[in-house]
C-alpha cells in the first residue's frame, strides 16, 4: 500500500498484517503547510544553548548558566507537548563555549567566554564531560593554552576533536579515549580561530573563513583542515589557491562577528558550503570546482524600509527540504547587535533569500538582537526555536527531502546483551543540522532511532558508537548501536532512523521479551515489513 512519509509517497510491502498499522500511524509528515506552534509547557527558566541528545531528548542550558534542563517529548513523540526536568549542574557557570555530542552519547564542553564569578569574561580553558545516564559532570583535561573561551571545535573521525586557539593560529587535537591533548597543526595564515565558524565538508574536511586575516588585509581568505594529514590548506581567492570571490563577511565595526555556515546542495552541486556574514552578505563555496561566489544579500524590514540585516552571531538550521532557516538582525544598518531580529529562508536551488513564511508570532523579536536566539533541528524534521525567554516554539516546515538524502537501513541486529545495531546508509544526515557563530555549537549529524507501537506510543532508543562522523556520506555504509527505552513491552514496532532531521521510511520490527530484558542470544531482529 502507499504511505506518505516526510511528504514523499513510499510503498510498504507489508508482510505481517499485525504490524501494518504500526508502520503508517503517527509519524510526522512534511507535506503540509509550514506552521509555528508554542510549546505547551514553558521552560523553568530562560534558555540558551540547545543540544540534541542521542536519546531524542533536548538538553538546554538554563539561567544561571551552570544549570541545565531536559526537554523530553511526550508519550506520542510530540516536542510541542514535551515536559521539562532539571539536570545536574556544571561545576561552574559557562556562557558561550564549545560543545560536542560524542559517539558515547556523552556531552563534551570546553571553555566559556564568560565563566568567572559573577560571570566575568575570563575565557577559561577548562572543560567538563556530561554523562546522561549517570546525570553527572566530570572534568576533562585543560586546553593546552592558558585561554580558550568561545573558540570553535569539531568532532573528527577516530575519536578526536579539533579545537582552535583564541590568540594564535595553532590548533589542537583532543583524544576522547585518553582525555589528552596533542598539537593539531598551524593554520596557513596568522589568523586566530576566535569568532570563526567551522563547518564540516562532505569528505570530512573542516572549512573556516579567516575573518581576521580577511578584515586586516581587506582580502578573501579561507582554509580547510584535513583530519587525515592534520594539515591546514588555503582556499583563498586572494592568494590564488581558490577561484572566485568571497564578499566581506565581517568587519571591525561589527565586532569581527560571523554567522552560521552549513553544507547545502544548490543547483545540483553536492557539498556546497553556505556562509552567512554579519555584514548582510553571504558566500558559497563549491569544493568540486574550488570556487567561491557571493550569495544573495540579506534584507530585512526596519521602520518600514528594506535594509541590510546580518547574522552577527546568530543561528541557522537546514530543514529536510534543504532550505536554510536562519536569524539575522539590523546590525549592518544600525550597529552591532541591533534589533529587530527576523527569520529568513535560503533556497539553495533558487539561490535566493526571503523572509521565512509564515513569520513566527513572537513579539519579543522586535526588541532583541539575533545573538540570543537559537535553532535546533529535531529528529522528526521540526525546528526548535528559542529567543532566550522561557517560551520556546516549534517550526513545522513544508517541503520534503530528496530521495537520495533519505536514510536507509538494511537490518537490525541484536547482540544478545541489550544492544541493537543498525546497518545502513545516509544515517548521519546531509548536514550538521544546525549552526551558529563561534559562541554556540550544536552539530547533530548523528543517527537517532525511534520506535512506535500500534497505540501511537513513541520510544526513542539511545544511540551510541556511530561509525561515521561526516555529513552527506552517500552510499558509504554506516552503523550505529542503540538500546531500548524502559517501559517497552514485547510486540511489533515501527522503527525509523533520522540524521539531522531527515528520516528514513519506517520498517516494522518484532521486539521480544528477551531483547527488552537484555538477555538471550545474538540474532537479527525480525523485520516484518519493508519500506522502499
UniProtKB/TrEMBL annotation:
Listed SUPFAM superfamilies: Galactose oxidase, central domain, Kelch motif
Domain of life of the native organism: Bacteria
Signal peptide: 1-33
Keyword Repeat: yes
A Pfam short name: Kelch_1
Keyword terms, alphabetized: Kelch repeat, Repeat, Signal
Entries under InterPro entries matching the protein: Gal_Oxase/kelch_b-propeller (IPR011043), Gal_Oxidase_central_sf (IPR037293), Kelch-typ_b-propeller (IPR015915), Kelch_1 (IPR006652)
The UniProt record lists the keyword Transcription regulation: no
Protein's name according to its UniProt entry: Galactose oxidase
Originating species: Paraburkholderia sprentiae WSM5005
Amino acid at each position: 500500500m502507499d504511505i506518505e512519509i516526510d511528504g514523499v509517497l513510499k510503498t510498504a510491502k507489508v508482510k505481517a498484517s499485525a504490524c501494518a498499522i504500526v508502520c503508517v500511524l503517527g509519524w510526522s509528515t512534511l507535506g503540509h503547510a509550514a506552521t509555528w506552534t508554542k510549546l505547551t509547557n514553558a521552560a523553568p527558566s530562560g534558555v540558551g544553548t540547545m543540544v540534541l541528545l542521542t536519546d531524542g531528548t533536548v538538553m538546554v542550558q538554563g539561567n544561571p548558566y551552570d544549570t541545565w534542563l531536559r526537554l523530553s517529548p511526550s508519550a506520542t513523540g510530540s516536542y510541542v507537548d514535551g515536559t521539562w526536568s532539571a539536570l545536574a549542574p556544571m561545576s561552574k557557570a559557562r556562557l558561550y563555549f564549545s560543545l560536542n555530542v560524542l559517539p558515547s552519547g556523552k556531552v563534551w564542553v570546553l571553555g566559556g567566554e564568560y565563566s568567572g564569578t559573577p560571570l566575568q569574561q575570563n575565557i577559561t580553558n577548562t572543560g567538563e564531560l556530561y554523562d546522561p545516564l549517570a546525570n553527572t559532570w566530570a572534568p576533562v583535561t585543560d586546553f593546552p593554552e592558558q585561554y580558550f573561551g568561545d573558540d570553535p571545535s569539531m568532532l573528527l573521525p577516530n575519536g578526536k576533536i579539533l579545537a582552535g586557539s583564541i590568540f594564535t593560529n595553532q590548533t589542537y587535537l583532543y583524544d576522547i579515549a585518553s582525555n589528552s591533548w596533542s598539537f593539531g597543526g598551524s593554520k596557513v595564515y596568522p589568523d586566530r580561530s576566535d569568532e570563526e565558524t567551522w563547518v564540516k565538508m562532505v569528505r570530512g574536511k573542516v572549512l573556516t573563513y579567516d575573518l581576521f586575516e580577511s578584515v586586516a588585509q581587506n582580502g578573501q581568505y579561507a582554509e580547510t583542515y584535513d583530519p587525515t594529514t592534520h594539515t591546514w590548506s588555503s582556499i583563498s581567492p586572494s592568494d590564488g589557491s581558490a577561484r572566485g570571490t568571497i564578499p566581506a563577511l565581517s568587519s571591525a565595526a561589527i565586532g569581527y562577528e560571523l554567522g552560521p555556515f552549513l553544507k547545502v546542495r544548490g543547483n545540483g552541486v553536492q557539498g556546497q558550503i553556505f556562509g552567512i556574514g554579519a555584514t548582510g552578505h553571504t558566500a558559497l563555496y563549491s569544493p568540486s570546482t574550488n570556487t567561491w561566489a557571493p550569495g544573495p544579500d540579506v534584507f530585512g524590514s526596519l521602520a518600514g524600509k528594506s535594509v541590510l540585516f546580518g547574522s552577527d552571531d546568530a543561528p541557522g538550521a537546514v530543514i529536510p527540504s534543504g532550505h536554510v532557516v536562519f536569524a539575522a538582525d539590523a546590525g549592518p544598518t544600525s550597529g552591532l547587535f541591533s534589533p529587530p531580529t527576523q527569520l529568513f529562508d535560503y533556497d539553495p536551488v533558487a539561490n535566493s533569500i526571503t523572509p521565512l513564511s509564515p513569520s513566527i508570532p513572537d513579539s519579543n523579536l522586535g526588541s532583541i538582537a539575533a545573538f540570543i536566539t537559537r535553532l535546533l533541528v529535531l529528529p522528526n524534521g521540526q525546528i526548535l526555536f528559542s529567543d532566550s525567554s522561557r517560551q520556546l516554539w516549534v517550526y513545522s516546515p513544508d517541503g520534503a527531502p530528496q530521495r537520495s538524502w533519505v536514510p536507509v537501513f538494511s537490518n537490525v541486529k541484536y547482540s544478545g546483551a541489550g544492544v541493537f545495531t543498525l546497518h545502513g546508509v545516509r544515517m548521519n544526515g546531509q548536514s550538521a543540522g544546525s549552526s551558529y557563530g563561534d559562541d554556540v555549537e550544536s552539530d547533530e549529524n548523528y543517527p537517532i532511532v525511534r520506535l512506535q507501537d500500534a497505540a501511537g506510543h513513541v520510544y526513542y532508543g539511545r544511540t551510541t558508537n556511530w561509525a561515521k562522523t561526516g555529513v552527506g556520506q552517500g552510499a558509504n555504509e554506516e552503523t550505529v548501536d542503540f538500546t531500548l527505552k524502559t517501559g517497552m513491552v514485547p510486540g511489533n514496532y515501527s522503527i525509523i532512523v533520522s540524521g539531522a532531521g531527515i528520516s528514513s521510511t519506517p520498517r516494522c520490527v518484532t521486539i521480544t521479551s528477551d531483547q527488552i530484558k537484555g538477555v538471550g542470544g545474538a540474532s537479527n531482529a525480525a523485520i516484518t515489513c519493508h519500506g522502499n
